[in-house]
Amino acid sequence: MVKRVLAIILILITGYWLANALAQVPFGADKMLVGKYYLENVKEQTGAVNAVTAVVVNYRGLDTLGEVTVLFIAATGVAALLWRKKRERTAKSEGSVVLQTGSKLLLPFIMLFGAYIFIHGHLTPGGGFPGGATIATAFLMLYLAFREYEIPHNVFEPLEGLAGMGYVAVGLIGLIIGGYFLFDWIWQTWQLGHANIGRLFSAGFIPIIYTLIGLKVGTELTGIVDNMVKEPKEGGQ
Amino acid sequence: MIDCVQCIEYLIVILMIVSAIFAVEWRDLLAAVVGMAAVSLFASIAFFLLQAPDVAMVEAAIGAAMSAAVFIFAIKRTERYESEEEGTGWWVRW
C-alpha cells in the first residue's frame, strides 16, 4: 500500500511540474521555430515534397540509422533467445480454404503496396518502416496459411545485411564528398533531379535510403516472425 | 448542421476506450489480443483524421498486425486463459 501511495505522490509531483512548464507557453502560440524552418526550406534543400520524410531521412538521418540499428539488435535478440540447432514448423493443420485462397490472391498486391510505400516515400505519406512492415505482414500471412512454408533464408539474411551496409555506405560517400556523414551528395553535389521536384526521380538519396530501409525492415520483421513460428524439433534440443 | 468529422473522432475515441477496457478485462487472452489490436486500429484511424497519415500507416502495420501476431505466438506457447485465482474486482486491483 505504501508503494501505491508513493507512486501516486510521484505522479502528482511530475504532473505538477509538467503543468507548470506548459503554463509558460501561451496557448496556441507558434513556438516551433525548427519546424517552420523545415517547412520553408524543405524543397530547396532536399527536394522532397513530403516534409516528414525529408526530416526523417535527410535532416535527422543519423537518428534513423540508430533506429534501424535498434531494430536490428531487437531481431538479433529474438533470434538469440529462441535459438536451437534443429527447429521446424510444427503447425498441425493447414489454414482454411478462405485463408489459403485469399493469401494467394492478395500476396502480390500487398507486396506491391509495401514496395510502393517505401519507393514513393518522398512523395506520398509513408516510408521505409511502414513499407517494410507491410511486406513482413505478407510473409506472416503465408506462414499462417501454409503449414510447410518457410522463407528462403539464403536470400533474406544476406539481403538484410547488404541493405544495412548500403545505408552506411551511402552515408560514407556523403562523408567523402561533402564533409559530413549522410551528406546528400546526389541532390547537393550532383544536382540530380532539380528539374522534377514532385516526381519519382528527385529528392536526392531519400528514395535510395528508404528503399534500403524498407528491404531491411521487411526482411528483419519477417525473420522475427520466422523465429517465433518455428519450434524446436521433437527430441533434439 | 453538426460537424460530423468531430462526431467520428469522438466515436473513435470512445471505441478505443471500450476496446482497451475489454483488452484488460477479458480472461480469454486470445480475445484480449484482438481487443488490443482493435485499440491500435482505431488509433490508426484517429491519426489519419488528425492528418498524420505517416503515423497512421505505421500504427496499422506494426500495432494492429505485427504486435498482435507476436502476442498470439506467445499465447500459443503458453496458456490461453488467465488464471481465475485473483478474482477481485477492478477497484481492489489497482
What do these coordinates show?
The complex is a heterodimer of chains A (237) and B (94). By secondary structure, chain A is mainly α. Chain A has one domain (31-232). Chain A has nine helices and two strands. Chain A has helices spanning 2-23, 33-46, 51-59, 61-81, 97-119, 128-145, 153-178, 185-188, 206-229, and strands at 87-88, 231-232. In chain A, strands 1-2 form a two-stranded antiparallel sheet. In chain A, α2 packs across α3, α3 crosses α4 and α5 (97-119) runs antiparallel to α6. With 94 residues, chain B is mostly helical. Chain B contains four helices and no strands. The mean pLDDT of chain B is 83. Chain A binds chain B through residues 4, 50, 52-53, 117, 125-127, 129-130, 133-134, 136-137, 140, 221, 224-225, 228-229, 231, and chain B through 53-54, 56-58, 61-62, 65-66, 69-70, 73, 77, 94.
Helix content of chain A: 55-70%
Query: How many helices of chain A in DSSP terms?
Result: 9
The biggest beta sheet of chain B reads:
none
Number of strands of chain B: 0
Helicity range of chain B: over 70%
Lateral strand order in the biggest sheet of chain A: 1-2
Supply Rg of chain A. Answer: 23 Å
Order of helices and strands of chain A: HHHHEHHHHHE
Q: What do the pLDDT scores of chain B average to? A: 83
Count every helix of chain B, treating DSSP H or I runs of 4 or more residues as helices: 4
Low-confidence stretches of chain B: none
> Biggest interface pair, residues each?
A-B, 21 and 14 residues
The general outline of chain B is: flat
Main β-sheet of chain A: number of strands, strand sense, barrel status?
Answer: 2 strands, antiparallel
Task: Tell me the span between the first and last alpha carbons of chain B.
Answer: 43 Å
Mean pLDDT of chain A: 84
| Classification by helices and strands of chain A | mainly alpha
**Residues in β-strands, percent of chain A:** under 5%
Kindly give the count of domains of chain B: 1
Order of helices and strands of chain B: HHHH
